[in-house]
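Weekly modeling sync, notes
Attendees: S.R. (lead), two postdocs, one rotation student

Agenda item 3: backlog of single-chain predictions. S.R. asked that every request posted to the team notebook include the full sequence so nobody has to chase files. The rotation student volunteered to paste the first one in as an example of the format we agreed on. Action items at the bottom.

Example entry:
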Amino acid sequence: MTATIETVKVFRVHGTTDDVTTCGLCERADLKSTVILIELDADGGDLDAHYYGSECGAKAAGWTQSRFRTALSAALAERQREESARQQRLREERSLREATAFASWATTTYGVTVTRRGDTVTNNDVFHALAKLDLTDRLGRRTNFSFFNEFISAVPAENR
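Predicted structure, as returned to the notebook:
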């Protein structure tokens, strides 16, 4: 008697893409997008990416359509959270670069010493240092906005 061992592929839903528009199961080629299923090894590690239409993805994974849609929604929400976190990191990095350049400009232009009140310099630290100066504009006052506009006009974007 010969025993046959059938291996069952295990997948996790990664998300969707419009870069691949052909289903890997039925080979339909006119899809708007495909679902990315990542094949997992016995330890749960990633192996290969497979691209399926939404109905074929559920079949390939051996799941019900309901379970598949739930997994896809969760994967898309996770991708959105990751993208939001990435965008937030980029904004924070830009803000830090800008505040550092603003502090340098204020020191060079007005001779102020910018003191950090936290871990890193912020625009508010610069405004605080500039507020100690007795500077006026044509309206008789200098605002944070006018200082920052002067900085933006004086320092090219690639340097901030």
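Discussion: group reviewed the output briefly. The CA atoms of residues 15 and 77 lie 9 Å apart.
Action items: rotation student to repeat for the remaining queue; S.R. to check formatting next week.
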